[in-house]
# Entry
Amino acid sequence: GAVVSQHPSWVICKSGTSVKIECRSLDFQATTMFWYRQFPKQSLMLMATSNEGSKATYEQGVEKDKFLINHASLTLSTLTVTSAHPEDSSFYICSAPWNGGANEQFFGPGTRLTVL
Amino acid sequence: GENVEQHPSTLSVQEGDSAVIKCTYSDSASNYFPWYKQELGKGPQLIIDIRSNVGEKKDQRIAVTLNKTAKHFSLHITETQPEDSAVYFCAASLAQKVTFGIGTKLQVIP
# Structure
């Protein structure tokens, strides 16, 4: 199947700093990518839809100024957590739909963010 | 929006027994139902999926059934093995937007 990578796989930062997470589709192009957040022992919650060449679409309750999304190319989307706080500590996962398979989506391995 | 309910939240089975996880969805427009396996510290991995025009699909020890009328779908794992132990998520999707169930932690006891 198609491969989606994320970088870094884990990051620890101090409160108040910003952290950038990259999501790449390695062997296919993705005009749309999705960002999820997963707290321990919970399900994945969609945060936003990243659109290549246009603004991201955020789910209700997600602060767009705090979670900046940039879909710079057909294979790269970035999520920047600005002014991170301990409550932002979570597992962040991206996904990309594979156009060869209608609705089929492939998920990245996730990024563990810990804010001290 | 779509709402997906999943049960049980935890499931323990003896190795070799079958495991069944059930889900319901609320939006009749959803047309794609993937199942994901997530191991600790990793992203979800697609294990099987079913589209709304199909009632049943099987892949070796894994099968999924869909009842569109009742808006139910289920995952069946036969001959379970210790490596099947993980968290399993059902999901309902429409136009690439995926809504996940709460997850089922499956433990296969050797």
Remarks:
- The radius of gyration of chain A is 13 Å.
- The CA atoms of residues 30 and 52 of chain A lie 8 Å apart.
- The longest strand of chain A covers residues 44-51.
